[in-house]
Amino acid sequence: MDLVKKFLNAEFIRFLLTGVLNTAFGYGLYALSYYITGHEGVALAIDYVIGAFFNYKSYSLLVFSQYNKKRFIMFCLVYVFTYLLNYLIVFLLMNKLTLNAYVSQLVALTICPLVLFVLLKKYVFLHEETDKELQDTL
After folding, report:
1. For helices 71-96 and 40-58, what crossing angle results, to 10°?
2. Which of 43, 46, 50, 98 has the maximal Cβ count within 10 Å?
3. Whole-angstrom Cα distance, residue 112 to residue 110?
4. Residue 97, CA atoms < 13 Å, CB-side half-sphere
């Protein structure tokens, strides 16, 4: 029950709502990029590179209320990890279950945002007492 309470707080609800915006933006980029290139890896890379700027700004301001340019480096590292996870999921779904690229990405979008929230919360948008440690390492 404590785990449910932990996730169903105002911050997580804001993350979900902002995630809808970011997902619509990112999926639109992915679909357009895949339509143009015909390659899911290239489409995901375009989605993640352009989306990283949009998503960092939206998550910083709308969810965590902690916009700081120095955090963008760690944000990008988290995004690289989630890109690799996303690509692995899409690759496996396309090659093992023979789903198409569009459906495979929709399935990945049910897993990756949850991983992203945990990683952003733990490593990017830290509490004030750990901000000093972040500044010392940068």
Report:
1. 150
2. 43
3. 6
4. 12
Whole-prediction pTM: 0.72
Reading the block at residue 1, the tokens are: 């029950």
Separation in Å, CA 94 to CA 16, 106, 130: 27, 12, 41
- Report the 10 Å Cβ neighbour count for 38: 10
Per residue in 62-96, pLDDT (tens digit) is 888 777 777 889 999 998 999 999 999 999 999 99
Angle at 90 between CA 84 and CA 96, to 5 degrees: 125
Is the Cα torsion angle 99, 103, 105, 109 positive or negative in sign? negative
Number of neighbouring beta carbons within 10 Å of residue 34: 21
Residue at 105: amino acid letter: Q
Give the Cα separation of 112 and 89 in Å (integer): 9
Instruction: Write the CB contacts of 81 (distance below 8 Å, at least 6 apart in sequence).
Output: 119
Can you tell me which residue has the tokens 């999926």?
27
Record the tokens describing residue 128, joined without a space.
Answer: 């004030």
Q: Which amino acid is at 92?
A: L
